[in-house]
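Please decode residue identities from the backbone states below.
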């Protein structure tokens, strides 16, 4: 049975609705895999009436999304009324964003969807509501343990056709990086990256480049049979000729990874979570409150995330198999 992708609304007051409408409009042109958005249908209809009156809304359950997709944007009701306005999050924002993520993981776990794609959230809004995780990545790992009984080390990869980078430490002040970086963390991260590049990206022998800061994990990765080079100086690691020598870079901290990929692929990079028993991708940008509800937001990164989820899903285990994991 053909399965759709589960797309979360993200922060309701952000550009999630805008870019979702824009992506759905281009579904036939780009050959997009059917997807449904997890949201409050009343809220989403109001957004459509304002900025996308040409986009019809169909309230469905996931199995019906594939049939509905050609004629209407399928919406699965998350059961949380949304009262936020474009650019103005309110007390409904965090519960709606969290409910959408939970339902997306549940749908993949129960074989109703093939992969999870997440629209951007506003972390500050989530934190004010008592959200305890640093971000999407860690929350997905928590849900994996809760729903599937699987303990996972999630790894954030920023991917584009030009470059793929993995920050080994994320959401950390720079002064804390050295205290968190260990041989074990770098090695386990490299092992997960190499495994998923092979199993999901179809790269028979992944090549990893290790940016300089802590050299001790490179020998351990090589001992695991992983083609790893480093530590390499970050200032010469990202030019065009250097990028032909590896499939992904393990960077030691946030800026070491994100500056080069945002320079090379600002509008079409994708956030991919490796190390989970299901595929998850996301646009590599924020909520853009300043242009939310205007219809001017660029959907390129969401489209890239949907297309990459479609590609990776072809190599992922069938969702029904997750129930037996």
């Amino acid at each position: 049975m053909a399965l759709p992708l589960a797309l979360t609304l993200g922060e309701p007051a952000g550009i999630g609705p805008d870019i979702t409408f824009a992506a759905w409009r281009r579904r036939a042109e780009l050959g997009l895999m059917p997807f449904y958005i997890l949201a409050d249908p009343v809220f989403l209809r109001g957004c459509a009436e304002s900025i996308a009156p040409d986009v019809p809304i169909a309230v469905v359950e996931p199995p019906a999304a594939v049939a509905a997709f050609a004629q209407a944007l399928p919406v699965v009701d998350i059961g949380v009324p949304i009262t936020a306005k474009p650019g103005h999050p309110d007390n409904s924002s965090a519960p709606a964003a969290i409910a959408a993520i939970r339902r997306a993981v549940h749908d993949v776990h129960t074989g109703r969807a093939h992969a999870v794609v997440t629209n951007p959230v506003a972390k500050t809004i989530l934190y004010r509501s008592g959200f305890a995780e640093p971000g999407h990545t860690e929350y997905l790992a928590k849900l994996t343990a809760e729903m599937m009984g699987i303990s996972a080390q999630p790894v954030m990869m920023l991917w584009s056709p030009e470059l793929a980078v993995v920050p080994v430490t994320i959401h950390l002040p720079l002064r804390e990086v050295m205290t968190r970086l260990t041989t074990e963390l770098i090695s386990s991260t490299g092992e997960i990256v190499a495994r998923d590049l092979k199993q999901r990206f179809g790269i028979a022998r992944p090549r990893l480049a290790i940016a300089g800061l802590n050299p001790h994990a490179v020998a351990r990765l090589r001992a695991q049979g992983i083609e790893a080079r480093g530590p390499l100086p970050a200032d010469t690691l990202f030019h065009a000729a250097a990028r032909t020598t590896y499939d992904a870079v393990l960077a030691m901290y946030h800026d070491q990874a994100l500056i080069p990929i945002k320079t090379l692929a600002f509008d079409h990079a994708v956030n991919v979570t490796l190390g989970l028993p299901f595929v998850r991708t996301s646009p590599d940008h924020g909520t853009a409150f300043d242009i939310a509800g205007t219809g001017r937001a660029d959907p390129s990164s969401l489209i890239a995330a949907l297309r990459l989820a479609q590609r990776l899903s072809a190599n992922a285990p069938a969702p029904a198999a997750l129930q037996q994991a």
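Observation: The first strand starts at residue 5 and ends at 8.
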